[in-house]
Amino acid sequence: MSVRAKFDVNRFLDKLFTGITDGKLAEHLPADEVLRLLNEVRRCFFLQPMLLKIGTPVNICGDLHGQFNDLMRIMDSEGFPHCRSYLFLGDYVDRGAQSVELILFMLACKVRYPKNFYMLRGNHETSSINKSYGFYKNVLDLYRSDQLYDAFNKVFDCMPLAALISGRILCMHGGLSPPMLEAKNLKVIDAIERPLPDSLINPANNQMAVDLLWADPDVNVPLFAANRRGVGHIFGQEVIDRIRTRFGVDLIIRAHQVVLDGHEFFNGTPDSGLITLFTAPHYCGMYDNSGAIVRVAVDLGVSFKRFEPTFKNSPSRG
């Protein structure tokens, strides 16, 4: 009886970088090797809770949307994951032309460095969205395989939805949800079952999951209202204040929206207790925004690092 060889993530990363030219896969990795990576990383996500508990120091990144070259800029500046901890807030795929390259690199890093490379799910890590906004076509252009595309989404179905840094900084992709105002503690997030396929992310099944992926802050509402996106809620300062008090957190960091400087305090003031973070500069090659990351120090001090547009980021061929 043959024994299946252990997945060699270092070899996978070597082959991935060998095949990448100007941020794009000139020679793609065999589909069977990609499937092995996806099976391995799915197990990694299952071994960690839906609400990650992360220590400091850590760098936090918002939306990347297939801008692989910009992720490399960040790591060249801040350090690669063998020497630096990272938390990513979702939206790795779609819109940018390097979605496959980016997600393969990140998932391989998750396998290689499971205790200091953390990835949350974004709304684009759902099949109903990434089938229409570029990722599906990116995968088919490289691999001609619906099976591989489905395997990526099975990985996304297992990703955590939120993270708590040293018990004081709450992070998610989208935002806050009405059920959180009634919860006794943040274990309510851990209670969300996985795998969580797109078909179960709806108000009838789990409103909290919807909002963690989709909700937006809005200065014009005190509590909650329907989101103009047609999915999830918008929420105001009173919700932020009540959540911070209820769960004993100092700060909420979320992504999901382009902001000009890459980071923005809600209502323009640090006193709001909420930061929107967007890490892809020159988003889709159409916006003049900077990207940014949040650096959280050992003592929970927060600072920002901006990345000005450098590369011409082409929109996805999808």
Automatic annotation (TrEMBL):
Serine/threonine specific protein phosphatases domain span: 120-125
Domain of life: Eukaryota
Protein family according to the UniProt entry: Belongs to the PPP phosphatase family.
Protein name according to UniProt: Serine/threonine-protein phosphatase
Any one GO molecular function term: protein serine/threonine phosphatase activity
Gene3D superfamilies registered for this protein in UniProt: 3.60.21.10
Entry GO CC: cytoplasm; nucleus
Keywords (A to Z) from UniProt: Hydrolase
Catalytic activity of the protein: O-phospho-L-threonyl-[protein] + H2O = L-threonyl-[protein] + phosphate
Pfam families: Metallophos
Coiled coil regions, renumbered to chain: none
The enzyme's E.C. designation: 3.1.3.16
